[in-house]
Every structure is written in structure tokens, then in C-alpha cells.
Design a protein that fits this description.
Low-confidence stretches: 3-20, 73-94
Number of strands: 4
Distance between the termini: 30 Å
Strand order of the largest sheet: 1-2
Largest sheet: 2 strands, antiparallel
Helix content: 40-55%
Number of helices: 9
Mean pLDDT: 80
Order of helices and strands: HHHHHEEHHEHHE
Structural class: mainly alpha
Radius of gyration: 19 Å
Length: 230
């Protein structure tokens, strides 16, 4: 989840240059060795057994897709796969395929009750956050809720504007809706991070100013008509 958060903000940072008044969104800022995670301290959230369940779910999907593509599951294949992973770091992509971030986000939201029948339930989102965010991080909960609401309204508004009711599902049964929301919520929370949790230094402030100008809501590319269904 942190990896996606970093990509959302840094992808925006790579599109602009850092000037005091305005940014040129086609040129990258020079922020040097910069850890975006240090800017807005993300809360500790107790997800219970959801991560374990969802990791198992991704493995199950990967096996199903491999079987559909005619890839065997013998012990020899498993041994070869393990050896390949040891010798080639890029082989990890096979273990965690491109669609995994889409399906994993949907699974986490589903397991925590935040998504019910493919729709976000804001009452459940707020209840889960109030229950699961550590006591020392409670200050950020209202902002995360506002971020959910802003992202949900923006993405839903986009769909309505193009006359679409819902996102089409990928072949493995997952919708991109949850992962879009996850990325949007993280970016929106970054932009509106409570002062208590914000690192007030030059690089963080430049990243925030740039993102506000060059990466506005919904902070992520929305699906084209080809991704969607009536």
C-alpha cells in the first residue's frame, strides 16, 4: 500500500519543476534523494487478518490465470520457479502480476467492510478507521474520511458525465474502482495532511505545492470508455 502511495505522489513530482509561484508541469523538480513517506506520517492501521486473506486470494487468482494460460503447476515447475526467482529479481513480477494491485485493493476494502457489493459504504469506512487507526494517529481520521468523500464524488462524477454506471471488471473478476480510490485517497490525504503529521521542510512543501497544481483530483488517470461498461 505504501508503494502505491509513493507512486501517486512521485509520479506527479516528475511532471513539474519547483518554482515559488507556479510550476512547469512538463519539467521535473530537483528534489534529490527524497523520501516522500517522510512528509505526511501515515497512520498505523490494524487490518486484522485482511492482508493474509488477500495475499492468499492473489495467489489463488495467479494460479487460476496460470491454469487458464496452460501453465502447469507441478512440483518441478515450482522448483524451477523458485530457482528463477533467486537468480532473477525480475521474476518476482510473475509472483505478483500486474493486475494484483487492482485485485488486492478491492479485497482489502471488501474484507474490512469498506466495500459492500462493489460500492463504498462511507459509514463502514468511518467506523473501520475510528476502530482500527492507532490512538496516537486519530487526528488524521477525519481527513481520510474527507479524502474518501472527495475521491468518491469526483470519480462517480466522471462516470456520470460520460454516461457510465460502473467500471468494467478485469478478466479475473476485479474492478479498477477500488485501486483508483486507494490511490486517490492517499494523494488527497497527502495534500491535506494535518499540520501535526506534516513534515514542514522545503522538499515536502515543494512536493505538496506541485501536486496541488499539476496533479489535482482525482490524482490518478481515470479509465477510458474501453474500461467501462453501461
Amino acid at each position: 500500500m505504501e508503494f502505491t502511495y509513493a507512486l501517486v505522489v512521485l509520479s506527479a513530482c516528475l511532471l513539474s519543476s519547483a518554482h515559488a509561484a507556479a510550476f512547469n508541469c512538463s519539467e521535473p523538480p530537483n528534489l534529490g534523494a527524497f523520501d516522500i513517506h517522510s512528509c505526511c506520517r501515515m497512520p498505523e492501521i490494524n487490518l486484522g487478518n485482511a492482508p493474509a486473506k488477500c495475499s492468499a486470494y492473489i495467489k489463488e487468482l495467479t494460479t487460476q490465470m496460470a491454469n487458464m494460460n496452460g501453465v502447469g503447476g507441478s512440483k518441478q515447475t515450482e522448483n524451477n520457479k523458485n530457482m528463477n526467482n533467486q537468480n532473477n529479481p525480475d521474476a518476482a513480477a510473475v509472483e505478483y502480476p500486474a493486475y494484483a494491485h487492482v485485485c488486492y485493493a478491492e479485497c482489502i476494502y471488501r474484507e474490512t467492510g469498506s466495500m459492500v457489493e462493489n460500492e463504498f459504504n462511507m459509514d463502514n469506512v468511518e467506523k473501520f478507521l475510528n476502530k482500527s487507526v492507532s490512538k496516537g494517529d486519530k487526528d488524521i481520521v477525519p481527513q481520510i474520511v474527507r479524502s474518501f468523500e472527495a475521491c468518491l464524488n469526483n470519480i462517480k462524477g466522471h462516470l456520470e458525465a460520460v454516461g457510465i454506471k460502473t467500471h468494467a471488471k478485469l478478466p479475473m473478476g476485479c474492478s479498477p474502482f477500488a485501486s483508483l480510490m486507494f490511490s486517490c485517497v492517499n494523494a488527497e490525504t497527502f495534500l491535506n495532511c494535518p499540520a501535526k503529521m506534516w513534515k514542514n521542510d522545503h522538499n515536502c512543501n515543494v512536493a505538496k505545492s506541485f501536486a496541488a497544481q499539476c496533479n489535482p483530483l482525482p490524482h490518478v488517470p481515470l479509465p477510458t470508455a474501453n474500461w467501462l461498461k453501461p
